[in-house]
Automatic annotation (TrEMBL):
UniProt name for this protein: 2,5-dioxovalerate dehydrogenase
Keywords assigned: Oxidoreductase
SUPFAM superfamilies: ALDH-like
Gene3D superfamilies the record matches: Aldehyde Dehydrogenase, Chain A, domain 1 (3.40.605.10), Aldehyde Dehydrogenase, Chain A, domain 2 (3.40.309.10)
Domain Aldehyde dehydrogenase: 16-456
Family, as annotated: Belongs to the aldehyde dehydrogenase family.
Principal EC category: oxidoreductase
Species, as recorded: Sphingomonas metalli
Length: 526
C-alpha cells in the first residue's frame, strides 16, 4: 500500500505539507501526493532510533541475520506492484528493476550470512601474561561494536539496491545500527513500499520499532536536520557531489562530528592499451557503447573517459564507437532535473572549442530522453581544462588521444579519485600495464581488465569506493560485505571478568566464532 506516509518506527504519520513525484517518461504527476517529513518527525525518528540502539546492538548473530532475511522475504513478497511502481517513478525498464530487486534481496541475504559467520566482529584476544618481565601484560580483548543510529540517503539511480533497503541500510543493520532513511523524492512510492516491508520485518522479528524509520521529503532542510541530529552517528549517501559535500560540512560542523560515507562522482577511465587496441579495437567499440548507454548511462560506474595512444587503431575504435552510438536508442532518464543536468553537461562539451563531437545517439519521442554522446580531444586540451574531467551523469563519454603511454600516465595522474579504472589489455601489453598499475591504484577503488565497469558484483572482495570525490572516504566501500565496517568501531576490554565480557570475546565463545588469540587465527567452525 502507498498512501504517502512517514514511518516513525511502527507509527504511520501523514503531514500537511505534501509533494508529488513525476513519471519521467510522460511528465505526468503521480498519485498519491506524499508527506514531507518535518523537524518533529526527524527528532522523533532519531529519538526512537537512539532508544532502540542498545537492544538492537545486543542482538545475537542469529537474531540479526534472521531479521535481514525477513526483510529480504518481505521485499520479495511485495511482488509486481513494487516493480510497476518503480518503473513509473524512474523510467527504468522492467528487466533492469527485476534484476535490481534480485540484487537488493540478495545483498540482504548475503549480509545475513556475514553476520552469522562473525568475522566482522574481528574478535581478538591477547591473553594476560602475568609473569612477563619486566612488566606483566593485562588480558586484552577487542571486538567491533555498532556506532549507533545511521542516516541513509536513498539514491535516485538505484531505487531498490541503493535506496531504502539498499546496500547502506543492509550494511548498517548488519552492523547492529538502527537506520533512519531520508527517502529520495524522485521515487517516494517505491520507497514507501520498501519501508513498509522493513517495518513489518522489524515487528515480525520482535525488535524495537525504532530500528527503522523512513522520512520522505524533497527539501535540503530535511536531510540537513537528519545529519545534524546529535543521535545520528554516521551517514550513508549516494548522489551528487554538491549534496555529499553539503552533508559532509554539516557532519563536520556538529558539536560531535560524525563520518559521512558519501559516494559522489566518478568518470571511470578506460585505458585501451596498444596491443589490445590493435588486436580488437573495433570489437571493443560496441561493448563500450553498451556499457556507456546501459540504464541511460545513469551509473556512477559509467565509462565517461577513454584513453589511448593516438594511432590509426585508436581512430578505428573511435569510428566504430561513433557508429554504434549513433545507432543507440534514447532512454528515459530518472527525473527532469537529472535530464536537464545531462543536457547541460553534453552541451558544454559540444560547445568546447578543443573538443570534437564524434556522434550522438538516436533521438526519439517523449520527454526526459537521454541521447548518447561521444566526444574526442587531445591530452593537452584535457590537461589544460579540468572541467573536461567532470562527471556528466548519463550516457556521455570523451576519448582522449595521448601522444604515448607516458602521456596516458600523466592524464591518469591528473585525475581526481575514481571508483574504477578499466584496462583493455593483451599479453604484449604486460610491461606497459605494469608501469601504469601503481598510478592507477593510487587513483581508484577497483581496477578491472578486459571488461566494463558498470554492474558491480556484491561480494566479499568488492570495493565500490575510491579517493575523493569518488567517495568521501577512500578507505571504505559502499558495495559488498566490507561495507559493514563503515558502521563499526573497535572497543578493547582490559582485564574484564569472564562473566561480564561480550559473548564474542568471552572464553565460552557461545557464538562459536573464529577469533585471533595471541596473534593466531582460530579455525572457523562456521
Ligand atoms: N555519481 C553518482 O553515483 C550519482 C550522481 N548523481 C548526480 O546527482 C545529480 C542529482 O541527482 P540526485 O540523485 O537527486 O542527487 P542529489 O545529490 O541531488 O540528491 C540525493 C539526496 O541528497 C539530498 N540532498 C541533496 N543535496 C542536499 C543538500 N545540499 N542538503 C541536504 N540534502 C541534500 C536529496 O534530497 P532533497 O532533494 O530532498 O534535498 C536527496 O535525498 C545527478 O544529475 C548526478 O549528477 C546522482 C546519482 C548518483
Ligand atoms: O554499477 C553498478 O552496479 C553500481 C553503480 C552505482 O553504484 C551507482 O550508480 O550509484
Amino acid at each position: 500500500m502507498i498512501d504517502g506516509a512517514i514511518l516513525i518506527g511502527a507509527e504511520l504519520r501523514q503531514a500537511e505539507t505534501r509533494f508529488t513525484s513525476v513519471d519521467p517518461a510522460t511528465g505526468e504527476t503521480l498519485k498519491p501526493n506524499v508527506s514531507s517529513a518535518g523537524p518533529a518527525d526527524v527528532a522523533d525518528a532519531c529519538a526512537l532510533a537512539a532508544a532502540a540502539a542498545p537492544a538492537y546492538a545486543a542482538t545475537d548473530p542469529e537474531t540479526r541475520a534472521a531479521f535481514l532475511e525477513r526483510i529480504a522475504d518481505a521485499i520479495a513478497a511485495i511482488g509486481d506492484p513494487l516493480i510497476a511502481r518503480a518503473m513509473q517513478e524512474t523510467g527504468l525498464p522492467r528487466a533492469r528493476l527485476e534484476g535490481e530487486r534480485g540484487r537488493t534481496v540478495g545483498q540482504l541475504r548475503l549480509f545475513a550470512q556475514v553476520v552469522r559467520q562473525g568475522d566482522w566482529l574481528d574478535a581478538t584476544i591477547d591473553p594476560a601474561l602475568p609473569d612477563r618481565q619486566p612488566l606483566p601484560r593485562p588480558d586484552l580483548r577487542r571486538l567491533n561494536l555498532p556506532v549507533g543510529p545511521v542516516a541513509v540517503f536513498g539514491a535516485s539511480n538505484f531505487p531498490l539496491a541503493f535506496s531504502v533497503a539498499g546496500g547502506d541500510t543492509a550494511s548498517a543493520l548488519a552492523a547492529g545500527c538502527p537506520v533512519v532513511v531520508k527517502g529520495h523524492p524522485a521515487h517516494p512510492g517505491t520507497g514507501e513500499l520498501v519501508a513498509r516491508a522493513v517495518r513489518d520485518a522489524v515487528a515480525a522479528a520482535g525488535l524495537p520499532a525504532g530500528v527503522f524509520s523512513y522520512l520522505p521529503g524533497e527539501t535540503n532542510a530535511l536531510g540537513e536536520a537528519l545529519v545534524a541530529d546529535p543521535r545520528i552517528k554516521a551517514v550513508g549517501f549516494t548522489g551528487s557531489r554538491g549534496g555529499g559535500l553539503a552533508l559532509m560540512r554539516i557532519a563536520a560542523g556538529r558539536e560531535e562530528p560524525i563520518p559521512v560515507y558519501a559516494e559522489m562522482s566518478s568518470i571511470n577511465p578506460v585505458i585501451l592499451f596498444p596491443a589490445a587496441l590493435a588486436a580488437r579495437g573495433e570489437a571493443l567499440a560496441p561493448a563500450f557503447v553498451q556499457s556507456l548507454t546501459m540504464g541511460a548511462g545513469q551509473f556512477c560506474t559509467n565509462p565517461g573517459l577513454v584513453l589511448g595512444v593516438a594511432s590509426p587503431e585508436l581512430d578505428r575504435f573511435v569510428e566504430a564507437a561513433g557508429k554504434a552510438l549513433s545507432e543507440s536508442q534514447p532512454a528515459t532518464m530518472l527525473s527532469p532535473g537529472i535530464h536537464a543536468s545531462f543536457e547541460k553537461g553534453v552541451d558544454a562539451l559540444a560547445g568546447h572549442n578543443a573538443v570534437t563531437q564524434v556522434a550522438r545517439g538516436q533521438v526519439g519521442e517523449g520527454v526526459n530522453q537521454a541521447v548518447g554522446a561521444l566526444f574526442v580531444t587531445d591530452a593537452s586540451a584535457f590537461l589544460a581544462d579540468r572541467a573536461l574531467g567532470h562527471e556528466v551523469f548519463g550516457s556521455s563519454s570523451i576519448v582522449i588521444r595521448c601522444r604515448d603511454l607516458a602521456e596516458i600516465g600523466t592524464v591518469i595522474a591528473s585525475l581526481e579519485g575514481q571508483l574504477t579504472a578499466t584496462i583493455q589489455i593483451d599479453d604484449a601489453d604486460a610491461d606497459a600495464v605494469r608501469g601504469l598499475l601503481p598510478i592507477l591504484a593510487e587513483r581508484v577503488g577497483r581496477i578491472l581488465a578486459n571488461g566494463w565497469p558498470t554492474g558491480v558484483e556484491v561480494s566479499h572482495a568488492m570495493v565500490h569506493g575510491g579517493p575523493f570525490p569518488a567517495t568521501s572516504d577512500g578507505r571504505t566501500t559502499s558495495v559488498g560485505t566490507a561495507a559493514i565496517y563503515r558502521f563499526l568501531r573497535p572497543v578493547c576490554f582490559q582485564n574484564i571478568p569472564e562473566g561480564l565480557l561480550p559473548e564474542a570475546i568471552s572464553d565460552a565463545n557461545p557464538w562459536s566464532i573464529a577469533r585471533r588469540v595471541d596473534g593466531k587465527r582460530e579455525a572457523s567452525t562456521r
